[in-house]
Amino acid sequence: MTGITTTDLVKRFDDVTAVDGVDLNVRDGEFLVLVGPSGCGKSTTLRLLAGLESPTEGAVEIADSDVTDTPPGDRDVAMVFQSYALYPHMTARENMTFGVRTATDFGSGEVDDRVAEAAAILDIEDLLDRTPAALSGGEQQRVAIGRALVRDPEVFLMDEPLSNLDAKLRVQMRAELAELHAELQTTTLYVTHDQVEAMTLGDRVAVMYDGELQQVAPPQRLYDAPDTRFVAEFIGSPGMNTVEATLERRGDDAVATWGSNQLTLPSAGRVADRVDGRAVLGVRPEDLRQERDGPLRMEITVTEPLGDSLLTRGTVGGAEMEVSLPARSPVGVGDAVSLAADPERLHLFDPESGEALYHSSTELDATEAEPLLADGSPERR
Amino acid sequence: MGVHENTFDSTLGAYLLLLPTLVAIGAFLYYPSLQTLRLSLYKTFLFGQNTRFVGLANFAELLSSQTYLGSVGLTFAFAAIVVAGSLAIGLFVAFLLYEVSDGKAAYLVAAIWPYALPTAVAGTVLLFLAHPSVGIYTHYLEAWFGVELDWFTVGWQAFAVLAVAAIWKQVGYNVIFMLAALNNVPEALNEACELDGVETWRRLVRVYVPLMSPTLVFLVVINTIYAFFGSFALIDLMTQGGPTNATNLMIYQLYRDAFQFNNLGLASAESVILFVLVAGLTYVQLRVSDRYAHY
Amino acid sequence: MSHETQDDAAPSAITDATLVPEQWPVHAGLIGSILLMASPLLLAFVMSTQTVPEVYDITNIGAGSDGLANYLEVLTTYEMASYMLNSLVMSVVVTVGKIAVSLLAAVALVFYRFRFKNAIFFLILFTLMVPVPVRIVPLYELMAAWGWSNTLLALTGPYLASATAVFLLRQHFLSIPDSLVESAKLDGVGPLRFLWDVLIPMSRGMISGLGVITFIYAWNQYLWPLIVISDQNKQVVQVGMKYLQSVGNAGQTDWGLIMAGAVLTLLPPLVALIAFRGPLLETFGLAE
Question: Which residue of A5, A216, B50, C226 shows the fewest CB atoms closer than 10 Å?
């Protein structure tokens, strides 16, 4: 087992708490992506795992042994940095072998074999005798990854490794990283602020905000059933629309009302009982559609043709909302349109804590053994 | 700083790495400096064989000696002239170097080489070229300006020759630092000046000099220290403090008291005074610059 | 209206300035200053080839009839060769020693955390305020007490610690990107290997720059060798210049010979400066 476990990890810098009680579990062989806005503590968490920072409280376990007080050189982790961290005076090959001697007990023949192997995997065989200055950004990052591969560590730690690449190269390297992991199956923790990277690369994705873990789940589940309002708004491009509404029970269902707009939430009656009449309604832009006589009315303020769809922004009952309409929809700024929502894709969040209260989808039960309703009430209908 | 200083975790290791430096500054810098302080309170007799504690008597003797006070005044005048001269010439040359567009690299080397000039060479060469009887400079100056030059006997002339030698040697150093400061002037400011049609010399005085002020302050400090301490070889080779003490700067007086007259206590007191003056000047210069420099 | 004409005129003025290099005053100023600064040496060089009668014919600035004979004579008969060798040994030892000692100190100051770090850094920097003259008497006595007078140890020891070198190396190490340092840390690279394989190769420019500066500085020392070396065989070339002054016959100083000595004394630091001008200027913050 070469997983990573952190227990109640806390890191304070003077009066700033960067990491605030994180319990993270990266499973053996898993590719876990840690995502969040800048300043959320994700990089600090990674550095705590690497041993580059020492935790104020809590413990770090790698491969079932407590490494909280182990110096970084003895943790058997390899890190890939955003800035590549290649030594400018060494060739690609020297960069790849420099740390190996001290960090591992490979013989020199074995090191050569491993470099050749890594170079073949990363397709950089022709670049090995060049210095970083003679390599493009993408090539430098391949060498940096190669250096980590040669180490054959228990764990890969990657700190925004693709952020310095241009958009096209980033997409290409992303696919290659996924392929690489499929081949090597090395436990990997990958930090990024880019949610597309997070969704496409991660076996599971951990969303972090303000020093705390918000949710750890497979990408699709994160999108379909966000645990918190923050996750709902952060994941998705654009994120989920949220609006504070009054909530009333109507039989088994509930009705959310804001302004003159009303939406019915199937089987949400019990939720309405609990929340004292107010909740935050969440609905994704792509789960709204234009419909004559729909229950919602939006005044359009901005339209953004994205090619495959028309992203439309406007106000619904005084609240800012975004709707993804089919491309070439005949609407313009200043128009008022009627909208309906997919009843299978509605969400409710607690207005104070932001925790999810309800997801209307009926397909979620099987995906993960986590409670769909907060405070542990799994049965819904 | 944070990331770097956590790289290696061993206090012992850090002190081992510092050991050579600490031993060297302890043995060769701080111990002798403190000894200087101690010795300055003693009188030495019989060629340094006997010492007796005399309190501040050495300082009292120095401060009541016309020769010594004359030497202090001379040193300040010398420092002022050398600092002003080497900065002005340095600025002139550095600005030309900055402005020139063709042949910059060649001009640069040709302008900064005096940085490598040994003081002893500067002194020896000028001793000959400005020699009252065989010097070619003296010859032409006398021929063209109809003056009588004999700095072997005329005090102010000796002082002037010494200052010229000191400035000559120091200009290269100043040009290097001034050019570096000029190169740091944002290109946009140059373009703004050009658009506004600001004339060259006004640009130097109103734009560049204020922007270079941190470097200029640094150079004032360094050049002052140089003028106080660095001109020993010039005096020793050119004038030996003469004629009649006209070039007897503090450093030379100190050398004579210590190593010609073996008056170690008095010489140490002179060292202390030198230190206090230079430290005080540096402090004043830095304080003044804090108030007026544009950072 | 006048505002518009100004707008029109300004861009063309810039184009003129860049396309037509009307810089003859700049060139004239530079050539003038450079000639002024170089003329003493050019004259010294010319006169170093002259015989005594030629030198005493003051306005004669043609090449002398002695050729390079003065150089040969000054090197052999007047021992300049051995003074220069002594200077060379002193300068190389000071340069290598100072840089080695300062590298170690800078590594400690940048890559370690320990008590009294700031105090120690301050102690090192403050040595700038106590140049040799401030401590010359006790330093001389110390050398005598240790039996170091007239030795290479006395010539070089007092120059080993350097505030400037420690300061510049420290600045340079601090500018190395965090991720490179952390990468080495993750690999468990030790301090000496880190210094040798990473820091020194990454500081080559800075180290060569410091090397030239130190070499020139050491070569040009005068006061300390004058005091601590009394054995003429062991003396350095700067003080050798002083010995040369008395050279002459029948009351006529042989200035040609002395100028040959001066040119020889200048040559090593001048060659060092020209050869290493790139790193030297870079170290002073003036990248070429």
Answer: B50
